[in-house]
Amino acid sequence: MNTELIMQAFEVMWKGMLSIFTVIVILTLLVYLINKFLK
Fold it and tell me: How many CA atoms lie within 13 A of 32 on its CB side?
């Protein structure tokens, strides 16, 4: 029972970290492209 809960929490945390990482990468790419177009 406890192990299952821990695994679920870990999975949710992992997915959250992945989504945050993806958002950061996309934002970085957008900023890079905007800077390239402005210059």
Answer: 6
